Amino acid sequence: MTATVFGSLTDYQKGSIEIVSGDPKHYVFSNIFEVASKSQPYERVVVGKNLEYVQEVMRAEGTSPWFACAHDEFALCMDGEVEIEFLKLASPPPSAGNGAVLLGDAPAGQRMGRIRLKRGHQALLASGCGYRFTAIRLGVILQQTTLGELSRQKWNEICLK
């Protein structure tokens, strides 16, 4: 048994899996810090999936575009420091949509405030609200959402083979 070590964008190891039972071909894993290190800023790379729900990793660097979602999402800061700016949208995304959508450079709406996340902090990204991230320090965000048009599935590139 090995000790748990929490990684970061600048200090991580790929790791390995220890199969207790079952067939190894039924298991896959990737390292979120490695995925973020090879991603474009705010590219939403799927690293976990359970039915329609997904966990996406984003490299937090600079300021993101504005996003919105028709359902609640959660953002967990895994490394660095990130500020999230919220906007009550004049025209929220259709409720039938899945996953996040882009809103353009200056979406119409009322500013709602901002919060700052550090490593281990989590924020609710409420349905129908616009949001964008600004990295105070280079970081990694793990976001729970549903599979959508911005979700990038790169299983062949990110999973241990």
List the helices and strands and how they pair.
Layout: H1 32-37, E1 44-50, E2 53-60, E3 67-69, E4 73-89, E5 100-102, E6 109-118, E7 122-125, E8 129-146, E9 151-152, H2 155-158
Parallel strand pairs: 1-9
Antiparallel strand pairs: 1-2, 2-8, 3-5, 3-8, 4-6, 4-7, 4-8
Give a written overview of the molecule.
The protein is mainly β and 161 residues long. 6% of the residues lie in helices and 45% in strands. It contains two helices and nine strands; from the N terminus they run H-E-E-E-E-E-E-E-E-E-H. It has helices at residues 32-37, 155-158; strands at residues 44-50, 53-60, 67-69, 73-89, 100-102, 109-118, 122-125, 129-146, 151-152. Strands 1, 2, 3, 4, 5, 6, 7, 8 and 9 form a nine-stranded mixed beta sheet that branches. A hairpin with a 2-residue loop joins strand 1 (44-50) and strand 2. The radius of gyration is 16 Å and the shape is globular. The model has no long low-confidence stretch (mean pLDDT 91).
Task: Tag the structure with descriptive keywords.
mainly beta, 2 helices, 6% helix
Short description:
The protein is mainly β. It contains 2 helices and 9 strands.
